[in-house]
Amino acid sequence: MKWAEFDADGFPRGFYADDIHGPLMLPVFGPEPEPGADGTVSPAPVIGEKRNPAIPPGVVEITEAQWLDCVGAPGRRRWNGRGIEGVEPQAAKPVAPDHPSLSDWRVGLTLWRRPDGTLRIDELTAKVTALVENRHPLGRIARERLEYANHVERAQLLQLAEALGFTEAEIEESLWRAERVRQGDLSGTWPLPANLVTA
After folding, report:
1. How do the domains of the chain map onto residue ranges?
2. What pTM was estimated for this model as a whole?
3. Which one of 28, 103, 118, 189 has the fewest CB atoms closer than 10 angstroms to its CB?
4. What are the pLDDT digits (tens) for 95-116?
């Protein structure tokens, strides 16, 4: 006998088999009886049953054929409430990296221009210089990140976004551009994916 655990979308999350995990329900034994006159001890009586803790709640009983179908086509089978059905996997959405190298990030900014032709790296450098000169508390932090870090971190960029003159969407685009540079593309003419997701 086999069981499967499915996620909210019906895709298999785990499989369980009685020959490996035991039965779904386990016997509950009562107290052992006293030894008989001849010294033999009878087995304790079964007084009920309990759920096997090795098999999570919410599993669905499946056939051997359904199990083979699921394990033979990972990501292409799901439970629809009545049985297993085939599905075509969705194309993976592009993901912006969480912490690209500072070098890739700066090159990505160098290749990124405003509509008026201003390079985003020049804009950023001027903004950071002004913050330092005006003794803004974030100025020195921004300069350290811009000039000396090994990597840039999404979380820190988001905290510095306003000081750096970036919107949250522009931070995500800057990280995506850094990933294109890391992959060796220095054209700077990449279309930003409409379905960009954050890591």
Report:
1. 2-86, 95-198
2. 0.51
3. 189
4. 677 889 999 999 999 999 888 9
